[in-house]
Every structure is written in structure tokens, then in C-alpha cells.
């Protein structure tokens, strides 16, 4: 397996190119792939919550969505070198789906958000086949399953917030005729234009956390998880 373990949590050593190739190569087979994004805050929570750790480790790909993961890997002499953000992987998969004529489905978000995100994706990728959308406030689980299966998408993006979206994927993926599942958090809101993403210069250097801190100073308590995380990795505590 192309992974390493950080504080008991598996982290994939993939690049955008390698993970994209693997995901599209399994389409048309009976295999399924489940993607979860991990960052220092999530790993710290998993260290205190065995169920969350098991949930994350049950995924096929744990993408390193956070510069702190790359630093931690270097501290423990690992080889995770490529940061893969959830929203950028989603957009990479959408672009590839357009090229390969594969279908995508958007599930989650507040009413209207998935539709607005789908409309923007369609503008950016005119030939993309968007099989359907369902908002995250739909309560009828059978209706959700039946609607997705009827649409028969290759990729399902789930935006229910973490860990709810991962729990939903794990509980339902065997019932769905879908090859690739990705939990994407607030990505629909960003694509829809409801939430502004950090400027490109911050994204390029992995400093989106700093941008969020500058515009939302109250996040300082959450950001303190990063030095604690790195100290824990450095000390070798499990």
C-alpha cells in the first residue's frame, strides 16, 4: 500500500496524477474507492477517538489536505510530499470526467447549493455529464439511494461535513452503483461562490489556514492544534 501512518492514521502517498489514474482505471470494474481528506486537526481528534480513527483508516485513500501533514511526514522521515486538497482533487476529477465522458453526482449542502455548484461546473466544463444533485437536507435515505442509483454516476461527491459524510459513505457505498466516493466538506459552497477561497498565493504555499486566520481571528484556538500535532509527531507519542 502506498501509505504511511501518522499518529495511527493512514495517509496516502499519492499525487494528483497518480490518484486520478487509479480512480479512473477502476471505473467499469466491480471495485469501489472511498476518499477522505485528512489534516492535523482531524488526526488529533482521531488520536482521542478510536471510532473516528477506524473510520478514516477504512477509506481507500486518505489524502493529505494540509501542509502540516507534509511537515509531520518529514519529521518522522516519511515520504508524503504532495499536498492534495479536497476541493482541488474534486475539480481535478471533474475535469478528467469531462475528458473521459464519465458521470458525476453532487449530494449534500443546503437546499440550492448543490444545484448552484452544478451549474457553475457545467459552465466551466460544458461537456461534463452531471447525472444529478440532492441537497443534504433530504431525510428519506431510501429516496437518496434510489435517486443516485437511477442516475448511475461514476463519481459521487458528498458534502455533509466531516465526519458525517464519511460515515454516510461507509454505511451506504455497498448499496450504490458508484465507483468513486469523495467527501468534499464545504466544496460545493466554494464552487457555487457562496464562500470565497483564499487567494492563489496562499494556496500555492499551503497557507490557506493563515488566510482564514487573518479574516476570522476567532479560529486561533483551532489553529493551535497544528503546533500540538507537530510536537506529538516529533516526540513519537502514539
UniProtKB/TrEMBL annotation:
<comment type="pathway">
    <text>Cell wall biogenesis; teichoic acid biosynthesis.</text>
</comment>
<dbReference type="InterPro" id="IPR034714">
    <property type="entry name" value="TagA_TarA"/>
</dbReference>
<keyword id="KW-0777">Teichoic acid biosynthesis</keyword>
<keyword id="KW-0328">Glycosyltransferase</keyword>
<protein>
    <recommendedName>
        <fullName>N-acetylglucosaminyldiphosphoundecaprenol N-acetyl-beta-D-mannosaminyltransferase</fullName>
        <ecNumber>2.4.1.187</ecNumber>
    </recommendedName>
</protein>
<keyword id="KW-0808">Transferase</keyword>
<dbReference type="Pfam" id="PF03808">
    <property type="entry name" value="Glyco_tran_WecG"/>
</dbReference>
<comment type="similarity">
    <text>Belongs to the glycosyltransferase 26 family. TagA/TarA subfamily.</text>
</comment>
<dbReference type="InterPro" id="IPR004629">
    <property type="entry name" value="WecG_TagA_CpsF"/>
</dbReference>
<keyword id="KW-0961">Cell wall biogenesis/degradation</keyword>
<comment type="function">
    <text>Catalyzes the conversion of GlcNAc-PP-undecaprenol into ManNAc-GlcNAc-PP-undecaprenol, the first committed lipid intermediate in the de novo synthesis of teichoic acid.</text>
</comment>
